[in-house]
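=== RUN LOG ===
request id: a7f3
mode: sequence -> structure
chains: 1
length: 645
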Amino acid sequence: MEGKALLNATAAPNLATSFGEFRLYPGRHLLVKDQEPVAVGSRALEILIALTERPGELVTKDELISRAWPNTIVEESNLRAQIAVLRKALGEDQSAARYIAAVPSRGYRFIAPLSRSEGKIHPVEEAAPNNLPKQLTRPIGREEAIGILEGRIQRFRLVTVVGPGGIGKTTVGVRVAEELSSSYQHGVCFVDLAPLSHPSSLPSVLASLLRLPEITGDPISLVSAHLRDKHMLLVFDSCELVLDAAARLAETLLREAPGISVLATSREALRVEGESVYRLPPLDMPPLGAGLTAADALAFPAIRLFVDRATSSGSEYAFDDDEAPIVTHICRQLDGIALAIELAAGRVEAFGTRGIAELLNDRLRLLTGGRRTALPRHQTLAAMIDWSYGALSTEEQTMLRALAAFAGEFSREAAAAVAFDSVANERDVPVQLAQLVAKSLLAVDTHGKAARYRLLDTTRAFALSKLQEEGEVGPVVHRLAKYLCDTLEHSHEEIETLSSEEWLYKYGTHINKVRYVLDWAYSDDGDTEMGIVLTVAAVPLWYQLSLVDECLACVQRALLGVDPGERRDGRARQVMHLYRALGLAQAFKVGFAPQAPAAFAKALEIAEHLGDIDAQAEALWGLWVAQVGMGEYWPAAGLSDTRLS
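=== RESULT ===
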């Protein structure tokens, strides 16, 4: 009977639970003291309702977390933070609990006498005002981030959500502010900084949003004075283009108005004292590997977002087991960036998922057509990244364009080698790298022995287009080719001294850079000689990665670029190495067909012309192995009498 009564109390808006000076209306999610609403967040209020439903009983931590954060995994510290908010609202402290008692390591009890009654609710003040943008759909896959940020804003007065463009910072920030709005007596003020053309206008814009009288003096002083006795949350959205002004204003208000909290979104941190920075991660995606069913894939937020947007766009799209690997590939190519995934899903009706996967090489033109009501910079992928690019200094833009030559991960040394001629001083390179990381344009992995950097695929596509526009492709690719040749020259020596795992960690990530340079070298605007040199240097890399087919194709392409007359002049040594690599590749690929001995014979001929004893020995060994493999034992035996000269 008691359980049924509690259920009715929760459902009916005119039923109240009274304790001390407070009346709790579970049906309206409202706590009142002396006819005035108590500012407390929705999660804290849900915890209070759960405790008062079972007065005197232990309610475990897991039960309370499940109640306040349904279907979400959050840290236990979030629960402690909400309990602290409740105790503050109820006017008690842990040393003399009147309402909520902690049971160490287990949970909490509501210990005060209470009564339940039904009657007319006394009029109360309207909810505190806010001007937050209305979100018509709930964020997908951001429950954990929202929970973490709610906990952070209870412990820190300034929290900044940082991440690259389109990752969902504004969406998450607005949702957090919505959840916390009832905790602030004087409401929430949302300030969109993106349209500001002059940073100095920020204080005046905030004053206008706060509906202050006409400004005649210093707007910062006026705003500070107005907020000094207020309990309010300020949301500074898109701070990146007015970063210094936003940082100064936030720091001033936090110092002058002790009841103010600031939730900021930006592509880089404000770097203000007391700031807590939360880097919003990409949406979770399935791990690499095959065999995902549709049900398996939908457990990951990136897939759910794509499917949700594709099915809501008016197309007759159906997500099934055959679609799961294709959509996973698309989301992975888009780095889990929410905006890019939404734009791609919006193209399903026109191209289908297979068409989108094929067209992703031209993703900047493919990913257009966002919501008409979205900000202009969020309606196409190129506009979104251009917004970030425009905020960079000239040196940072030059550096970003140079880094576009890297397909995959790269080191600080590699960045310096490629960007050296593009920046004022070689010593500036670490500074520029740090700036691009801070501005969320460059991802960094610091878990290994040395930091590894990577441009997101969407950012790299944009930077490559800018590199082409500036006519810088040739010089940058030449510097990259020289760096790869110098680096891979040492790789051959270390095959015997390093373990396979160590060698691949050190050199394996260069394979995508080699492919990029070779594709350009043999293009209409390329440099065939550069392609030949790099092909020779990359042979050990292909073999250590077991890419024999790729090695064979690249070596054959390089040999086609060599004129017959060049085989005995300055390029002879490179040609010799190419024929030896050709023989090895043909032996592995074709299975000791006649092509392999012919290639080794060519290498031997050139080695003899050069008088290179070591090269002659290597070519003879290859020729011997090929002939033995073909069953030509007598010719192979005859090679033992060959004199090296």
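=== NOTES ===
The domain at 143-279 is CATH 3.40.50.300 (Rossmann fold).
The first helix runs from residue 2 to 11.
=== END ===
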